[in-house]
Amino acid sequence: PHTSPHIAGAGRLAGARLMSPMHEGIGMTSQRTRERLIRRLGQEGIRNRRVLESMRNTPRHLFVDEALASRAYEDTALPIGQGQTISQPYIVARMTEALLAAGPLENVLEVGTGSGYQTAVLAPLVRRVYTTERIKVLLDQARRRLQALKIRNVITKHADGTIGLPEYAPFDGILVAAAPEGIPLALVEQLRPGGRMVLPIGDRDEQALVRVVRTNEGYVHEMLERVSFVPLLGGVC
Ligand code: SAH
Hints:
The protein is built from seven helices and nine strands; from the N terminus they run H-H-H-E-E-H-E-H-E-H-E-E-H-E-E-E.
């Protein structure tokens, strides 16, 4: 067989393309690479088995641009366009764990869908996720990904999440993926008594991850650790 080098080269390329990140089992996006990330999260102190299991089952490489897919299982935030980032896996795990710590949750509000990765990790762990994103192009992409993964208990809204989703309140849990400078009271008011919210608070230079628990009298809050998120902004685009 005399295949010209040019054709052979094209064939290899076509093969590589067929095994693009949609497919399991190749190099940096393989199940083995994902396992390594899960082990690392365990070493970093993530204890909740259901959270780790959900992250093991969630293909993060499908939530970033194909050009970044090979870095998807590094424990780092990555750009998703529009000046936004997909959260670092450790932070996704930590926030989900903090949200679920007191037991199972029914309805959860997420503010800042971004890539949809946190949404996909959370969805199997609760009854329903309502997720809001203020940037339409990001939300549309996230919707397509969630659909492709057949995740059906998520309701997506193109909306300014600062004011929550009063029509679906109260929530058992709220998870905010962008940082306001103080605790947004509209969101606290949409928690059911005993409900909890996990969010970053602070300015661009210094932020803390905070857990807020709604009580009958008001709320109590607790600082978890230092973090770095994009700011929570008003309005939609
Ligand atoms: N957990 C997401 C993180 C996305 S970054 C992921 O893993 O991909 C935070 C997102 O919050 C950004 O997409 C940003 O557009 C969005 N955001 C910021 N302010 C918002 C607001 N007021 N309402 C809704 N979304 C907001």
